[in-house]
Amino acid sequence: MTFFSKTHRARRALAGAVAVLLSATAGSAAAQEARNVILFLGDAGGLPTLNAGGILAHDRPQSLFIHSMPHIGLSDTSSLNRWVTDSGAGMTAIMTGHKTNNSMVSAVPTGQNGAVAPVKTLLEYAEQRGLSTGVITNMAIWDATPAACFAHVGARKDKDEIFRQMLAPRFGDGVDILIGKGRADAVASLAARQTTPEQAFAASGYRFGDDPAIVRDARRAAVLRDTDFAPIPAVDATIAQLARNPKGYFLMVEWDMHTDDPKKGLRHVVEMDDMIRRVSQIAGKDTLILFTADHSFGLRTGGGERGTPLAAQYDAAAAKPGVTNATNDVISVQDGHTGEEVIVAASGPGADKVHGFFPNTRLFDIMLSAFGWKRDQ
Fold first, then answer.
1. Which residues hold Mg(2+) (predicted)?
2. Rounded to whole angstroms, how far apart are CA atoms 54 and 271?
3. What is the pTM of this model?
4. 262 inside domain
């Protein structure tokens, strides 16, 4: 065998090895692209609230499922005009990649006589590309956090305009699955337009009702009620429906963690944590799962002894004469939003981009790039 033929064979072998390596790299890159993205938003779920919620429920630190998620970062929550954000500006940053003023919802100030301009949300990107979309909340469906997924208003209290945009979307056919509170609000708002929620949502292609189970049998469903609902069955049913779309889906789940009523807010922490644990089991490896908060809250754990349930110690302290939420020496609450960074916890394709300190606007880019999309120019 000549030197040339030996060299030629060696080159061919090397080329084959490189091809295999490139193919594996390409496969790895493809695996990094998410088919689905699920954003869990703990409203007011800052680190102090997560810490207290886990200990209150399990009597040990770092006991939430969230604490086990493999990728962790810390997100700045300041708004465009305030160091301490409200939910409108906080969720706008996450959903659009743009900071805005407090009380604005997926809109930014133009600087002209108080006018605002809409900014495109991740849910709208998904609708434009034919993915299925869902919004679940245990708050009013028109409230700032859910509204920032699909509406664009200069004032978060403008529920009439938010309902109008909910039923007249800019992209696609709008949110496919809506589950939340605010049925009485919808009745009042739509009455001004001489219609009812049943009529208005049916006209927009929704199956309408008050039982989250209806979403299993309807590609488009709106569930509005004024009472609490069981979270895990609602999320299970929604994912089962959204996952039927071969193109994938985007789902936002908000759970109220405000602790002006500490035990209620901390119970909601555990409810959302249980949801995330459940979803991580059923969503599939092609799903990016993110947890974060729009802002933190003025709760502090200031006492308590190991070996005795913290909940019992909190109740005992609360029963003392003159003790209020603000003066309870076990868990105290300064009732209001606070400005410190909040945790971002992630798993699935694209989760490795969650690390270090970053602005809340980066979450939009993380979700967008997980889908393999680029911002509109």
1. 43, 143, 145, 254
2. 11
3. 0.91
4. yes
The domain tally of the chain equals 1
Q: Backbone phi, then psi, for 277, in 5-degree steps? A: -60, -45
In sequence order, the β-bridge partners of residue 117 are: 108
Q: Are 136 and 170 in contact (CB under 8 A)?
A: no
The model's pLDDT over 78-90, given as tens digits with 9 standing for 90+, comes to 999 999 999 999 9
Question: What percentage of the chain reaches a pLDDT higher than 70?
Answer: 92
Quickly tell me which residue has 């909040």 as its tokens: 342
Question: Measured between alpha carbons, how far is 369 from 149 in angstroms, rounded to an integer?
Answer: 18
Catalytic residue list: 87
Residue 111: the pLDDT is 84
DSSP result, 221-245: EEEEESS---HHHHHHHHHHHHTTS
Which residues are known binding-site members for Zn(2+)?
43, 258, 294-295, 337
Query: Is 222 part of a structural domain of the chain?
Result: yes
Task: Could you list the residues known to form a binding site for Mg(2+), using ranges.
Answer: 43, 143, 145, 254
The answer to whether residue 31 is domain-embedded is no
